[in-house]
Amino acid sequence: MKFIVLGSGCSVPHSKRTSSAYWVEAQKTKILLDCSASSISRMAQENLDWHDLDSIWISHFHLDHFGGIMPFLFGTKWAPQTQGRKKQLRIFGPQGLEKKLRDFDSAGEYDLFNQPFPLEIIEIEPLKEFEISEQLKAVAFKTPHTQESLAISLCDSSGKRIVFTSDTGFDNALGDFAHGADLFVLECSFLQNKPVELHLELRESMFLIRYAKPKKALLTHFYPEWDSVDFEGEIDKFSPPCQVIEAKDSLRLEV
Ligand SMILES: [Zn+2]
Ligand SMILES: [Zn+2]
User: Fold this and answer.
1) Ligand 1 center to residue 80 CA distance, Å?
2) CA 110 / ligand 2 centre spacing (Å)
3) How do residues 179-208 score in pLDDT, each as one tens digit?
4) Please, which residues have CB within 8 angstroms of residue 166's CB and are 6 or more apart in sequence?
5) Ligand 2 center from residue 21 Cα (angstroms)
6) I want to staple 198 with a disulfide (CB 3.0 to 4.6 A). Which of 7, 169, 171, 204 is the partner?
7) Cα(187) to centroid of ligand 1, in Å?
8) C-alpha to C-alpha distance for 159 and 140, rounded to whole angstroms
9) pLDDT confidence of residue 1
10) How many A from CA of 65 to the centre of ligand 2?
11) What is the 93 CA–ligand 2 centroid distance (Å)?
């Protein structure tokens, strides 16, 4: 699988980090994990086939994860690249996703559900396996962040597995959920003394990595306070059990 960081930042506007979005490619299928407002131009900047996306995963409804979905559908409705598209686009996310989309759509009378191609909205229950695309099995896991927030595990046909927490507070059980993943992508909003319970700070992210024993870990969703931090130096203090990578916009990993 290919994993590309489109946005390693949070909701705070930043010159080098855009808001949450990640591109996953497994054989021929292409998935977007979270859809921030910035992500729709970030896909084009990275020369990715945004018009050929199979599925979009929405972890929760905070706008640094969800705010690009309506602009994206406005784009696909009118873009030359999608006028001949026949393939279905599926948008997966927590309970309440369809109502959120329909409310926004009707508020502006955009008629965004009427696309050149079939569009399907699928609301996911935690812990029930589903196919997010042809070659990718997925399962979601409830996280302590918002009422609806979900982490996701993606497993390709060769058994390679990526786990993405998106935004979350601390929960040991996330370590179990991510156990043995080939790539564990977890938020690390703050370095220390986090101002809110519903995000992670470094010591908690490192605890989850130690507990989950992934092959590799990727930290992301950085608040601007990270700008002045020596990332490697801070990670080394924890004697990490595996490679722990700092997410940066445009970073590409092979899983
Ligand atoms: Zn966020
Ligand atoms: Zn959030």
Assistant:
1) 32
2) 26
3) 999 999 999 999 999 999 999 999 999 999
4) 20, 33, 34, 59, 60, 65, 143, 145, 149, 150, 151, 152, 187, 221
5) 12
6) 169
7) 9
8) 17
9) 97
10) 7
11) 14
Supply 197's token pair. 């319970």
Question: Which fold would CATH assign to domain 2-254?
Answer: Metallo-beta-lactamase; Chain A (3.60.15)
Compute, in angstroms, the gap from residue 63 CA to the centroid of ligand 2: 8
State the ligand closest to the CA atom of 145. 2
Dihedral angle, C-alpha 124, 127, 128, 132, nearest 10 °: 60
Percent over 90 (pLDDT), the chain: 98
Compute, in angstroms, the gap from residue 254 CA to the centroid of ligand 1.
Answer: 24
- What is the reported pLDDT for 32? 98
Instruction: Return the structure tokens found at 245.
Output: 């990578």
| Domain extents in the chain | 2-254
